[in-house]
């Protein structure tokens, strides 16, 4: 086992850091099971930020899409959101709310980061639902709320999930820099190389990368499970490969 | 003796004065005007890294898209691979590249290029796919070879979509470049984290990132309008 690690050079050391505990230069334990609290904090932060973003952005996007109002707002938030660097956002919260707990500050910053893709995709998804289907539903006497829940939401699901995936991966990636402001996530070994060593830096990077890819693949599986059959049938294999990474053809048109 | 007294007086005098803007940690235009110089190098580094990365990313993604345009079966695998590169957090990539390229600008640029590939690739492909079949037919009818058709008909018509991809790539890269200080490549992110507690610093360095993103975005848009005169006056 350790011979294989040695053959991989520094990557081998990094993989061994992921699985086995060791003492660092200061004599405190790092690596192996010591990574679990970092992972837990990372997941907690991601879940908190995503939950907050979903609660705000999803209903707002659905309602705005349903009414067709404020399209400028719904579209331009994601353009503005792209331009604001995540680091600056986190630093702003820390600088302007020095007394509130770091975890709360970072959660708020990450949630702000996660809102634009969800909002824009929910809006565009609902706007692009088949108007005939909506008219038919209205003709059958469904109320506005029923139309959103039973017609527009299911038909917009692929796009909505595209937005959720983009945001989740983004939040997982950005949570890596949270240790710079005192929230000890998996990014801690990256920014505190003196404590964890180089194998810790690389090892934690591997964990973060795997986490991001797992989130992408996992959410794609959920997306396939909840997408109505009618929408799946209407697509070819080429399109499916695109949507696996949340890149349906239609989403590109949200570009300015 | 008198000197010590004088010093004491001065000290007391300073205590009585209201705390300066910097001490109160406010937003201080004076401090910003005095310290403007310290943002110059990070800003230039930021612009450099962004432009180099987007340029390399564009060349690679554009070539891949042209190859895949002819050989359709290549689209899914290229999308998958660039998709994985897009999903990999760039911060993680900085450190995963450590054993290969070390710390510094090379590592930063590789990670930023990796991130931009998918954005540009998918927009070029989409742009080419959305060229009306009639336009292609007309081109063929005029006797254009496939190569001429691509450069004279398909690519010009795909330009708005391609440029839209470039705009997304530029703005996201500006944001990501704020993280390259973790790879030891400087940029405005380093200025932000030099002092996260000081509001003026965070506002200026963060603000410069946003301004840079907007300026580059508008520049690409301007170039787009310039090279696609036929889209002017048409709602996009």
TrEMBL record, chain A:
SUPFAM superfamilies (UniProt xref): MetI-like (SSF161098)
UniProt domain ABC transmembrane type-1: residue ranges: 39-223
Record key words, sorted: Membrane, Transmembrane, Transmembrane helix, Transport
InterPro entries noted in UniProt: ABC_transp_perm/SBD, MetI-like, MetI-like_sf
Single GO BP term: glycine betaine transport
Annotated Gene Ontology cellular component terms: plasma membrane
Main location: membrane
Location within or outside the cell: Cell membrane; Membrane
Superkingdom of source: Bacteria
Transmembrane segments annotated in the record for this chain: 45-65, 72-97, 103-124, 171-196, 202-222
Listed Gene3D superfamilies: MetI-like
Entries under Pfam families matching the protein: BPD_transp_1 (PF00528)
Membrane topology value: Multi-pass membrane protein
Coiled coil: none
Protein family: Belongs to the binding-protein-dependent transport system permease family.
PANTHER family (alphabetical): GLYCINE BETAINE/L-PROLINE TRANSPORT SYSTEM PERMEASE PROTEIN PROW (PTHR30177), POSSIBLE OSMOPROTECTANT (GLYCINE BETAINE_CARNITINE_CHOLINE_L-PROLINE) TRANSPORT INTEGRAL MEMBRANE PROTEIN ABC TRANSPORTER PROZ (PTHR30177:SF33)
Name of the protein this chain belongs to: ABC transporter permease
The species this protein was found in: Solirubrobacter phytolaccae
TrEMBL record, chain B:
Alphabetized InterPro entries for the sequence: ABC_transp_perm/SBD, MetI-like, MetI-like_sf
Main localization of the protein described in the UniProt heading: membrane
Keyword Amino-acid biosynthesis: no
Family from the record: Belongs to the binding-protein-dependent transport system permease family.
Domain ABC transmembrane type-1: 43-220
Keyword field: Membrane, Transmembrane, Transmembrane helix, Transport
Record SUPFAM superfamilies: MetI-like
Topology within the bilayer: Multi-pass membrane protein
Record field: transmembrane: 49-69, 81-102, 108-128, 176-194, 201-223
PROSITE patterns per record: ABC_TM1 (PS50928)
GO biological process: glycine betaine transport; transmembrane transport
GO cellular component, one term: plasma membrane
Superkingdom per UniProt: Bacteria
Subcellular location, record wording: Cell membrane; Membrane
Protein name: ABC transporter permease
The keyword Methyltransferase is annotated on this UniProt entry: no
